[in-house]
Amino acid sequence: MSSFGGQMVEYPTISIDRFDRENLRARAYFLSHCHKDHMKGLRAPALKRRLECSLKVYLYCSPVTKELLLTNPKYRFWEKRIVSIEIETPTQITLVDEASDEKEEILVTLLPAGHCPGSVMFLFQGSGGTVLYTGDFRLAKGEAARMELLHSGGRVKDIQSVYLDTTFCDPKYYQIPSREECLHGILELVRSWITRSPHHVVWLNCKAAYGYEYLFTNLSEEFGVQVHVDKLDMFRNMPDILHHLTTDRNTQIHACRHPKIKDFLSYICPVNVYPNVIPMGATLDKVGEILKSLCQSSSQGVEPKYKPLGKLKRTRSCHPDSEEEDDDLFDDPLPLPLRSKVPNQQTLHSESSFVTTISQNQPGKPRQSTGCIKTSSLANFVDCEESNSESEEELEIAASFKGDLDPATLQQKSDVDVPQWEVFFRKNDEITDGDLENVPSSTEAGGSQSPKLFSDSDGESTHISSQNSSQSTHISEQGSQGWDSQSDTVLLSSQERNCGDTTSLNKGGYRIKENISASQKEQNILCPTDAYPNLKSRNQHINTVPNVGETATVSGNHTPEEKRLLNLSTNADSQSSSDFEIPLTPEAERPKREHLQYLYEKLATGESIIVDKKKSSLLDI
DNA sequence: GCGATCAGAT
DNA sequence: CACATCTGATCGC
Fold it and tell me: Of the four, A127, A161, A384, A457, which is 20 to 30 A from A307 by CA?
């Protein structure tokens, strides 16, 4: 969270990303992006009153940010007082002290920040010198060097101060995967799941309001299905995002808010519910009574009937020796044409538990492993008369996509075999057609064949026939916006992204020596006289990290060791995401292939990875 | 009743 | 560990 107070020493009469306390006296306001922690006080009555009294006070932001902000009714009172400034267009603003009529001119330039749609950095130029407020940013290597407006006369501008997002200004973040790498990993993971059948769905657990659109659009493009979200009116003027979203729940990719602990049940309307936890002071019977009222038998008063198509093939993982590789989703239909669904006894262990699974990582050589797999008893009872389907198998992804993905936190909410982690984690060049040949293509499995499990479509569904594949996101007829910078990154190959810089990598992902100069060149792009960290955490020690500058919005649950290993396993470009290179830790060494394989298997089964720091080798197997 | 603040959860 | 919330309790106006 940003701890920036809102004011810069060079320009104390303007406030950025903070709108409370002393900022209530600002002559102008700036909002870098639409995240709540940068909007403190923005809808407070105190500021509202201020606006009513000080008619020359305005809020400046990017056009996309303005659009997103004004979509929220709580901020609509700003409508007449927001001025959007085009990206990379130096704009002069007059700061007026309404008491004394004192005026000050300031030139502001919005630079794309790549953090979320509309996010920008602010470059201020005026009597206080040139200062850069970064807000939260996520720039790929070399992007700063390509920003013309940061340069003048063939060199970077003299910048007095940088107000920097220092979220990841810590040695433990010496590895930050690039957006492309994260995207690739997620795409393959999602693919490994939703191609299993039209009934397999993924849920992206998105924590922030904005910042995942890049993921949504790419998932949608890749698999040809729109992503289900709760709301999309904020994107009504951003067709390149809107095309890929829907409020129709009939899709395999969900980014909706998780349904609520009663709402969920009444929505799912299962036959039976088996509670996992008995609240203090309650009894199983009491909880059962409450839950029972939400089940089908009480709500419909009739015995539900099911017409299953057949049994989903779930036995493959239990028969590792089997050579069977056909594409049929279903075994022969169950012998009973119509039957009431009987609870599957195997799933009555309704609590999350450690279970033993047999993986087929090594064909012909079954390997037992123990991992924490959340089974969803509900899923085994849920059915839908319209679809006659088995329940959807839901793969829950903690979508900390904005920088990272965390396979260790993936929860498999079913009793089927786990996703193909070994494929997912394999290096790009090692993935062969054979790895995925036993799953149907996305077009076969997805799209129109998605089950109609969700019959209560709310009528707000947006079906846009246009298949405009442009990644440029902008407000209609208002020109290009900051989102472009994010969108572009996925379309560029690593070579393209590195075009013009002398960085080179060896095959294993380590930088070879000549890149040090390239790295330093990158670091020296901005050499402000002063740097003001916008500390986001309590215990940052920025003094110890003189050369960490890139502050990609990376979140996730990897330990540094895991992150490093995961990165080493991907393509050789994996270390090129930072604008300012972060050195490897001194003790770092390249793990051996078998070590990586061991680690991936641990991750895949949810086992904790204990690293003995005393050992020189990371994993001693 | 509303907002600010904090703790806790996700 | 981190982020970006969201929820609920408490307090003050």
Answer: A457
